[in-house]
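Here we describe the complex-level prediction in full. Unlike the single-chain runs in Section 2.1, the two entities below were treated as one system.
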Amino acid sequence: MDCWEVLGIEPRSDKKTIKIAYAKLLKKTRPDEDPEGFQRLHSAYKEAQSWEDYYYEEDESEWDSTKSASEPAVLSVDNSESPNDVTLASPSADYVFSEDVKPLEVTVTYSESMDNDSVTETIESTLPSVDLIEEPVQQLSKEDLQLLDDIREQEDALAESWESFREQVNTLVADHKACNVVANWSFLEEMPAMQDLEFRKNVADSLFEVVSELNEESLKKKSLYIKRPVINHLNNLFKWDKHWQEYEYRYSASLHEAVFPYLEETEKVVPGSYISREVHYYRRIAAFAIDVAIFAVIGFLLFTIGNNLTSTEDGVLWLIGWGFIYQLVLTPIQECSHHQATIGKRIMNLQVIDMKGKRLGFFHALGRSFTTIICCSLFKFVLWINLILSWWKNELLQDRLSRSYIVLNARKD
Amino acid sequence: MTILGIDLGTTNSACGVWRDDKVELIPNSLGDFLTPSAIYIDSDERVHVGKVARERSVTHPNDTAQVFKRYMGSRKQIKLGKREYTAVELSSFVLSRLKEDAEKHLGETVTQAVISVPAYFNDTQRKATKQAGEMAGLSVERLVNEPTAAAIAYGLHDKPEHSQFMVLDLGGGTFDVSIMEYFSGVLEVHASSGDNFLGGEDFLDLLVDLYLQKASLKREKLSRQELQKIQMQMELAKREFNVADTVNIEPILASQTESITVTRDEFVKATESLLQRIQVPVETTLRDANLRASDLDEVILVGGATRMQSLRSAVAKMFRRLPMANLDPDLVVAMGAAIQGGLKAKDKALDDVVLTDVCPYTLGTGTHNEADVSGVQGDLFSPILERNTVIPASRVSSYYTVANNQKALQFNIYQGESRLVKNNIPLGEITVKIPKNKKGEEGAEVRFSYDMNGLLEVDIKVISTGETYNKMIQNAPGELSEAELEASRKKLSKLKFHPREEETNQLLIARAERLFESRLADDRVTIQNSLRWFEELLEKQDKREIQEGQVEFSDFLERFEQDRLF
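The structure predicted for the assembly as a whole is:
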């Protein structure tokens, strides 16, 4: 059963016929009484509507083709509906969004016919009239009259604001240095036209296009033309991430890939602070023990081989050499490999990462190994000093440094 | 069978019924349609609801609770006097009072109700609301989304055939946006969105901050009582801004000597960030409904906070048109809830009206994130029911194992819009056992069913064995268990409501006491004297005399309050 059969109407019926058929059937298939029937009916209704949209687009293809894909969807709006109340602001917005030098004058006229009186009549008679408590009849207050003036003013300024927005963005992005200074984008917030929803949406989409196109280009050379701080600033203003599905749907993968991966989650303010920090004591000790064991076995083998093979019995030299190779070559190589771990760490399911959660480079890993040696040496150094001090002066390092001493509590005896 | 329609608000609540083919709002014992959502528990453990409780918030801040709707669905305990209460319990007090008012007004017992909730309330918050109703002795027949309720009221009132409109509902604590279409008796919600932590109370908070800053006072250094006093005055000032450009505030605390002037511009500037926040859900609904701002035929304002001129102006500028507010923004949700009650009761007059609503947020489960080796991102969110799906709805998705010999599949259920589950709200978890097999060979079908009340049910079927798990979500944070509910009922049974008949007198006394506390010297003596006179009058128990006294005393207090603000 296709959607037209479910609705009981001719295929390719117009929107209004679909709606009336749906409304009629809906009253027999109420969502709370017949959930399954309702779901069937509703999906048929949606499907019929999307077919209708498709036909509509086909019919309107003349104007559709004049509009290049990269332009914002609608350049000029002429809403043919006239408001029935003179005192209300007309929703018809005659401002023209013109792009760059070639001001395209494409006009979309809402062609949904308004002659629905016949339908209205039949339905109105069946509806109950509801007496509700109304606010006192709205006389346009001083404030509202002022508001109407403000709205008109805003409306008149829209086209100009759009011009100036395009201009400022174009000059800004032409200068690679300037466009990466967040403060240089503050003009966006200062534009009064930003209060207008449609204007704001057009700005949001247009900026998304600008940023993603620039970055898509520069990413081919492995760099970001518009860098993270500005991307995130713009995202905070326009909430691209809130509508990620829509942008993913509308733009190619390479375009949204040039923006979304560089957005920081709002709660992550300090870089690096978002890795949940934990020392993993036991695992690290175990991993260390395993590594030491491997090191010791190989070291012992080398030591014996060195002692027996060479005439000068330089097994100790072999051992020291092995120690250097192990710590300064093998360990860093292992830690910057795709395993990101030494054998011990791998066994204990540990991994070495940098502050951004990525794999270390070789020199970064070398630095890490070197720091390990220094820390271990310092630890041993302090241990030795303590031993010497206790044997020689009967005190420990902290006693000597803090000029204090520890004795038995005499009062207890 | 009457079904009571209730608007359980953050600041105010109201209720009504569908009777004789029209909406009938129910007045409380004071004759008001609005009952403040405030609770006061006195030293005798008697519960006061409404205006009396609000007056007592100044004199007895530790025994009163307000704005508790914000904690619906959380485990937060609010201390009142000797005991602690959850938001569910406090809400049930309000509902009990409304039920009592309705029974008095209708002359019959009321056991069924339709309660309105913010469209953006999540599963846990909805269940909590239902529990509050049950605790108050009302079986909740339907939870209706607030903007939808408002739209029903408008739909039946104006009958705007073939029109698309947006309802902006800014209440005391929550903000909801819905886009609807009305045709041939069908009210179809296209998209809903919102912000659960944006409301009139936030505007009030900022105004209090502004005042404190001007008066060089520090919030931390003030006692709860002093802060309450300032809040109360600021609430009046906030309303004053709807008509006046500047508000002059006389000293509030004993330590202050000079009056302070706040201008509307300052107030607007201080609340600019809040006004900007309303844009986000508005934009989301428009994008979801695939509409442009100019496609809308009407923008309707609902909720007490939309009376603010600054909000009206922000909305007007967003849409380039004047928003509509023909019906009382405080009561329109209650009217809609009442109509929904009539619909639910299959009232003949409403035969030709059908309402379809949507689920305002995406629901799904967490899936293994293979690309995330370092564990920074966490699981990915796999949507099952996309936001703005028409309800009731039911959708199935299949999930497979990611490791060899996996023993179980754990489904963490989330609600939200982010790609990563850690940014979404966890609703609960279900674990199903599966036979051992190679990875990707075993799996389960997950069915999400979303009912008309906005409550979620999850069915899981293991594909190979056919074993089914039909569980309501468990471990939802903040949800009360059956045992906890029982304990709660026991606790509440010890409490008694203050007799409804005495409320008028109670309110007058509470008001007088509040005024007494906020005044000095001569004023205090005057108030004290009249209060004593009124109390003596009550002792006499002469009905007629008391009624006359009430009017006189009320006028006296009115005069006193009025010379406070200019």
